[in-house]
Amino acid sequence: MITCPSCTRAQAPALACAGCGAPLGANLDLFAALNLPRRLAIDAAAMERAYHDLSRRIHPDRFAAAPAAARDASMRATALLTRAYRTLRDPISRGRYWLELHGRKLGENNQRVPAELAAMVFETQEQLEELRESRTPENLAAARARRGEVAGALEAAAVALARNFAAWDADGEEADERRREALFTELKATLSKIAYLTTLARDIGRELETARAA
Amino acid sequence: MAYSDKVIDHYNNPRNVGSFDKSDADVGTGIVGAPECGDVMKLQLRINPESRMIEDARFKTFGCGSAIASSSYVTELVKGKHIDEAMTIRNTVIVKELNLPPVKIHCSVLAEDAIKAAIGDWKKHHEDGAPAAAEPRKAQEG
Fold first, then answer.
1. Which of A23, A120, B23, B59 could form a disulfide with A74 if both were Cys (CB 3.0 to 4.6 A apart)?
2. CA separation for the pair A11, A158 (Å, rounded)
């Protein structure tokens, strides 16, 4: 239980006071901050509504003349709300936050990239190197084809991520240790694959842009 | 961030850059990547099938100065070593030699992984009996 700094009402932690609507400055997880259930499938419309509604209610402008505790609470709650909205809006950062929420981190235990993915990244970087050295139509066509391949792989990874989210929401939180570990491993592998492919797509895009400008 | 003198030396003057023929049975190829920074590293070892000594090494790395220096240093480090000894090389040796800062330790981990991957690839041709059909995608030689 926490106490509202404005009306002193005691209540369960929330972003805004259930009584007077003032911000509480409570330490909430990002789902709770947005009044969302702790689920990975998010109702985007509900999240937008909650974000805008809460933003208005706790906005620091409304507490400019209020006592220091309320002003401070408004500031902290607004920062939390913004972080929650930005993090949960995007499935990739939402997935990363899910790991954080469960005390896990991407890149821990030196999780290896699958050999096939590393080989594909290496081949692509070699192709881009060749393209930098000589901008032949063949090299350009190869880079464009690669861009398509990477985009396709990213789409497939997004589907895999959505499947992992659905598995968590179905029974992942209550599942036994082994199942949970398998879901965490899969989530980490998918997120790192997406990170790798995103960097690669950016590199290809830059190279093609440079070639076009030349 | 300031690189150490040794990193700069390896970066400006990388040792053993290049590649061996992947299909050569005496060559083990390891390609490893770091998704956090987008780096990718290829290490190739020429291993004598009788003595199991690493006779030569080549690398090619796309990545930051520390990743390039780590792989360059590793090619020097493994040459002349028995594969069993090379398998015990820990990334901390690389960190110490190159004076890598904490944010670049993953580069040394990548180089350690590359040794293991390359030796593992070589062993696939030499121990499992079956020729390496497991490598799903072969890079075309440039």
1. A23
2. 39
